[in-house]
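Input C-alpha cells:
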C-alpha cells in the first residue's frame, strides 16, 4: 500500500441533525495521488486502524473521510478536536503478481496462453484484478481471466 497522507487534522461536523463527523481533506494534502474523487483508502486515526473506507467528495474540490461514532468513542474525540491520521492507497502491481502466476499454472495451458498476451494486455488484466479491494472480488476476476484464456 502507498502512503498518501500523514498528519494532524481537526475533525469537523456537517451542520444539522444527523450531520456526519469527518476528517476534511484538501487536494494539495495528498502526496502524488493522480485522481481526486471517490477514493478507497485504509489507515489509522489516532492509532485506530481501518480498512477499505471511501474518501467522499464534498463538491467543493475537497474530500472527506466520515468518522463513525464507534471510532470516535474508541479514540475519544469529537468535532473540533485534533486527530493524527495516516491514509494509504492500495497500489496496483506493476508486474504480474506471484499469486496470479500460481493460479494460471494450476490450470494446464493457461499460464502459457497468458504469457503470449502482449505486455499491455497483461497489465490490463492485472489492473482489472487488483482494482477491487476484497479477496472475493479479486478471486472472481482471476477466475474470469482463466476462463477467458
Amino acid at each position: 500500500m502507498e502512503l498518501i497522507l500523514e498528519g494532524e487534522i481537526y475533525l469537523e461536523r456537517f451542520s444539522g441533525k444527523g450531520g456526519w463527523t469527518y476528517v476534511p481533506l484538501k487536494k494539495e494534502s495528498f502526496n502524488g495521488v493522480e485522481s481526486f474523487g471517490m477514493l478507497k483508502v485504509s489507515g489509522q486515526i489516532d492509532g485506530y486502524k481501518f480498512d477499505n473506507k471511501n474518501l467522499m467528495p464534498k463538491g467543493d474540490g475537497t474530500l472527506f473521510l466520515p468518522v463513525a461514532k464507534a471510532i470516535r468513542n474508541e479514540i475519544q474525540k469529537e468535532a473540533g478536536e485534533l486527530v493524527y491520521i495516516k491514509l494509504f492507497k492500495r497500489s496496483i502491481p506493476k508486474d504480474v503478481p506471484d499469486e496470479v502466476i500460481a493460479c494460471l499454472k494450476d490450470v494446464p495451458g493457461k499460464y502459457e496462453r497468458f504469457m503470449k498476451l502482449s505486455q499491455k494486455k497483461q497489465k490490463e488484466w492485472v489492473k482489472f484484478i487488483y482494482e477491487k479491494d476484497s479477496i472475493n472480488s479479486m478471486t472472481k476476476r482471476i477466475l474470469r481471466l482463466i476462463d477467458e484464456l
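Residues 135-148 form the longest helix (14 residues). Residues 98-148 form one domain.
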